[in-house]
Amino acid sequence: MDYAQRIGVALGLLRGSDNVTAFTGAGISTESGISDFRSPGGVWDRYRIVTYQEFKASEEKRKGYWRMKSALFKEMSGARPNRAHQALASLEQMGKLRCLITQNIDGLHQDAGNSGDNVIELHGTNRTAYCLSCGLTWPIEEVQARLEEADYDPRCTKCNGLVKPSTVSFGQSMPEESMRRAVEFSVSCKVFLMVGSSLQVEPAASIPPAANNAGAALIFINRTETPWDHIASVVFHEDAGRVLGDLDDALREKLTCGDSVS
Q1: Predicted TM-score of the model (pTM)
Q2: Left, alpha or beta for 78 (phi > 0: left; psi -120 to 50: alpha)?
Q3: Which of 64, 116, 164, 187 is found 20 to 30 A from 219 (Cα to Cα)?
Q4: Active-site annotation holds for 237
Q5: What angle do CA 51, 55, 57 make, to 5 degrees?
Q6: Whether residues 72 and 140 fall in one domain
Q7: How many domains does the chain have?
Q8: CB of 30 closer than 8 Å to CB of 39
Q9: Three-state SS for 13?
Q10: CATH code for position 140
Q11: Is there a single domain that holds both residue 137 and residue 73?
């Protein structure tokens, strides 16, 4: 099918349902200037990955980790939601999108207008940090200010415990409640919209096939192929902003003409 035909298929699925679950990965935020794990020269390419176990055990590894986080903060702080983020917020405003599951830590979905109650952040958020010992939290900007003063092993101001961003590191357990909710919404939806993920990181990568097995129609939007393209009703390898923007425009035009939301 050509692009217009694929847009037509996706529109038919979205127009026919008010029970959509979206699943997003790093690819949706690259158009906002945030590099993904595989971008040459990006933050992830310039720094060695530090596991959760290494972070807790080694001051040297923690300092390397915080230098990477400082660079990532600077990259994320100037990022704004792009057309793809805005289209997903619009889909929620239309009463179609019930849940947005994201692997991203940038908070751009909430900035675009998606309700925080409807966003499940599987890998946590880079917008706060917390003490591993007592749980005290801070806005990430406060920790960043300490990093800029070359304090690359920040400690809790209350108990002197280790401070870490509120993100899930390699080797750290996924949040059980977030995973439970993500699977629950995925297996109960009618349309599953996947945007910007290579679907190679488990256990999140198992969510789209679980939705398919439960009877959902799948729409995939990703610049490269994924291991699960064959189960999708329609697949786009074009930019997420273009595809979701076109879908949003068409859905809004239909509503303007007096059609019901569903």
Answers
A1: 0.90
A2: alpha
A3: 116
A4: no
A5: 115
A6: yes
A7: 2
A8: yes
A9: helix
A10: 3.30.1600.10
A11: yes
CA distances from 96 to 191, 249, 257 (A): 10, 15, 18
Could you say which of 85, 123, 230, 237 is catalytic?
A: 123
Q: Is 123 helix (H, G, I), strand (E, B) or coil?
A: coil
Domain end call among 141, 167, 193: 167
User: Side chain identity at 155, as an amino acid letter?
Assistant: R
Place of tokens 């939290």: 137
Q: Which domain holds residue 163?
A: 35-78+126-167
Q: Let me know whether 45 and 117 are in one domain.
A: no
Give the count of beta carbons closer than 10 Å to the beta carbon of residue 241: 19
Token reading at 21: 């679950």
CA-based torsion, 122, 126, 130, 136: positive or negative: negative
Please provide the average confidence, as pLDDT, over all residues in the chain: 91
Together in a domain, 215 and 196: yes
My answer on whether 88 and 71 are in the same domain is: no
pLDDT digits (tens, 9 = 90+) for 223-260: 999 999 999 999 999 999 999 999 999 999 876 655 54
Q: Is residue 77 over pLDDT 90? A: no
* The pLDDT of residue 75: 79
pLDDT tens per residue across span 167-177: 999 889 888 99
CB 100 within 8 A of CB 114: yes
